[in-house]
Design goal:
By secondary structure, this protein is α/β, with parallel strands linked by helices. The chain has helices at residues 26-79, 86-116, 129-139, 141-146, 167-183, 248-258, 309-321, 332-344, 362-371, 410-420, 458-470, 481-490, 507-516, 539-545, 558-568, 585-610, 614-627, 634-648, 652-667; strands at residues 125-128, 150-155, 162-165, 189-199, 205-214, 263-268, 272-283, 291-293, 301-305, 325-329, 351-355, 379-384, 402-405, 431-434, 450-454, 474-478, 495-498, 528-532, 550-553.
Length: 669
């Protein structure tokens, strides 16, 4: 190195190609291929192990969280049935709502684990699309009303009425999109629309497009691509207004892709958003017992008076599907002009729908129509999105033949069309409206039985016993499978609620031993219902495969428990009392408290009618009727259902008359 100029850079090392180090023989190339394949296989195995470890961790976390969540929500449910002062009740209701929100987050995490582990089970069924949309909108009616947001749904005329698809997953995705739309919309509307991308009549294959459109805050175009990423949010600042962990859209995206569809969004900041997805499905024919005939209003003329395009479009779509002729008006002046032109042409409107909340001076328009002898033949149907019938000052005459509360259900519209515009239905009219389920199907208060609860968690034992007592059923509890077998040998039971994860002998092994008859069980065919925190794909099948009759995932709601018991317990005679004759002091106290609350509801319903608040009276009746799901009171349930319908149609005279019958039915319990 001596004599080298210090400013002169050293010569770089000779470059060596990687090829210089590779064997030049065919055997060497084969060896490299084998190494590459081995590395790829190793990476695949590592990825698979990581995925399975993640799924196992989330599944175990789900089980460990669901068990105490069942205790929290169950005990809160029982607490709300006790005598609480106003402040205590408010605190308990807030705690229950927070628990439900936590459960929703847990379910999202569980769905994520199912998807990533490839365990998303398929459960297809025949669904009436219009009824599906009606019930979906009804679920979100109250939060929409609270924000004074209109919510609409409609089904395009070319779409099949009944389809076979994944109804549960479809509802999950749509519910998330609608919930988001309401959450991010301060004024305006949310619209759910279903159209047929490809459906040929006579062909059972269909491709449907679902969209949820809102007039909310919108999204910047440069953030749209992040929406469907897990744990991603548009606003991640410390001052963000809207909460959430960013899982719902990611799960929706994966569900739609797994079902063979596509999902996307079109949005503009300050204007609103439209989330859409497509799904392949098959057109289906309903069973005769599951559908009722549509009203025949073909050719009848109908006028819709509403200053919102979505309101006009929804009613127009329904009328067109029934082959009616539908015209629309945005103002009172236009409506009067159309009514007079139709009368002059001897082609009068049979029905006129008037949106009471959005059309200026809508009730004045209705009175003007009725006051004009030339127009009085049209029947007026009032539409109100908020509390119907509340009047200020002196009572005003009711100009409407029927008053409907928004969001309007297709079934209610069909009833209006049938009552006021229907023709004699010809034989063979297409059945497209699902029948309402019989209320007697879920009335286990008529069941007289003793239940054995197998549950190792003491809190969940208390919850299960409390829920069964609310249904008027007697129950004993044990802590493991060995105690189950001993209890069945010692006493006769009608049904077992079986946990899966228990010490000494788990629920699956216990069920198999009961079915084998080797352990001295007097009834190897006794109904057994799994009531477990194991809620992954395949868990239900494992329970049924072990010999169980049914499956309930924790947290267990009273309604789901009621439905399952009604399926598997034998019916007692129809004259069984509200609760079994052998009542504990707690059960007697619960009965007295229930009847007292019935009288309180009756007083509130009467007071609501006195001030003309038909909407609140209907809501009171519905809340009371839903509480009857746990007891056998078919007469009272039917009367409350009729009262609710009369209030929603604003037939206050009939509603008043029913109050006497309701009071008598309550007195006979």
């Amino acid at each position: 190195m001596s004599g080298q100029n210090p400013d002169q850079k050293a010569s770089p090392l000779p470059s060596v190609s990687s090829e210089d180090h590779l064997p030049k023989t065919d055997a060497g190339e084969d060896q490299m291929v084998l190494v590459t394949r081995a590395e790829a296989e190793m990476l695949r195995n590592q990825a698979d192990l990581a995925r399975r470890a993640q799924a196992a961790f989330l599944a175990n976390m789900s089980h460990e969280i669901r068990t105490p969540m069942n205790g929290v929500l169950g005990m809160l449910s029982l607490l709300l049935e006790t005598d609480l002062n106003e402040t205590q009740r408010q605190y308990a209701e807030i705690a229950a709502e927070s628990g439900e929100a936590l459960l929703k987050l847990l379910n999202n995490l569980l769905d994520l684990s199912k998807i990533e582990a490839g365990q998303l089970a398929e459960d297809r069924s025949d669904v009436c699309l219009q009824h599906f949309l009606d019930t979906l909108v009804e679920d979100f009616a109250d939060p929409a009303r609270e924000k004074r947001i209109e919510i609409f749904s409609w089904l395009s005329g070319e779409s099949p009425r009944w389809v076979n698809l994944e109804a549960g997953r479809l509802r999950q995705v749509l519910s998330h999109l609608v919930s988001n739309a309401i959450k991010f919309t301060e004024r305006g509307e949310v619209v759910i629309e279903v159209t047929a991308e490809a459906h040929v009549p006579g062909n059972d294959r269909a491709y449907l497009r679902f969209s949820v459109r809102d007039t909310g805050i919108g999204i910047d175009s440069d953030r749209v691509s992040d929406l469907f990423q897990k744990f991603s949010q548009v606003d991640t600042s410390n001052t963000r207004k809207y909460g959430g962990v960013g899982l719902g859209l990611a799960i929706s995206h994966q569900i739609i892709e797994l079902l063979g569809g596509e999902i996307g969004v079109v949005s503009e900041r300050g204007v609103g958003s439209e989330f859409w997805f497509t799904l392949p499905c098959r057109a289906a024919d309903p069973e005769p017992d599951h559908a009722s005939p549509l009203p025949d209003i073909s050719g009848q003329r109908i006028l819709v008076v509403d200053d919102t395009p979505s309101g006009r479009r929804m009613l127009t779509a329904c009328g067109h599907r029934l082959a009616a002729r539908v015209d629309t008006a945005e103002s009172a002046a236009t409506a009067l002009s159309l009514l007079r032109e139709a009368k002059a042409a001897n082609d009068a409107y049979v029905l006129t729908f008037i949106d009471r909340d959005l059309i200026e001076h809508s009730d004045r328009l209705a009175m003007e129509i009725l006051g004009d002898k030339a127009l009085a033949s049209t029947r007026l149907i009032g539409l109100s999105p908020l509390k119907a019938g509340r009047s200020e000052g002196a009572p005003q005459p009711n100009p409407y033949a029927r008053l409907l509360t928004k969001p309007i259900r297709h079934r209610e519209l069909c009833r209006v069309f049938s009552d006021f515009a229907g023709k004699e239905a010809p034989g063979g009219n297409a059945a497209s409206v699902p029948r309402e389920p019989s209320p007697s199907a879920l009335t286990p208060g008529q069941l007289k039985a003793r239940i054995l609860i197998a549950e190792d968690n003491k809190v969940n034992q208390v919850v299960a016993v409390g829920l069964l007592r609310r249904l008027g059923l007697r129950a004993d509890s044990v802590g493991d499978g060995q105690e189950v077998l001993a209890a069945l040998r010692a006493r006769s039971y009608d049904l077992v609620l079986m946990d899966i994860q228990m010490p000494r002998l788990d629920g699956l092994a216990t069920t198999q031993r009961i079915r084998s008859g080797r352990d001295g069980s007097p009834d190897p065919q006794i109904p057994i219902i799994a009531m477990t925190a194991h809620a992954l794909a395949g868990d239900r099948e494992r329970c049924l495969g072990a010999g169980m009759n049914d499956y309930l995932a924790k947290p267990v709601s009273l309604s789901k428990l009621t439905a399952s018991l009604a399926r598997w317990l034998p019916e007692a005679p129809r004259n069984v009392p509200l609760v079994p004759s052998e009542q504990s002091p707690a059960a007697q106290q619960l009965e007295r408290r229930w009847i007292e609350r019935g009288h309180q509801s009756l007083i509130k319903m009467r007071n609501d009618l006195e001030i003309g608040d038909a909407f609140s009276a209907a809501s009171d009746a519905r809340a009371w009727r839903e509480s009857l799901a746990a007891v056998h009171a078919p007469l009272l349930t039917g009367l409350l259902r009729s009262f609710e319908k009369d209030c929603r149609s604003y037939d206050l005279e009939r509603a008043h008359a029913l109050l006497h019958d309701i009071r008598e039915a309550l007195g006979r319990l």
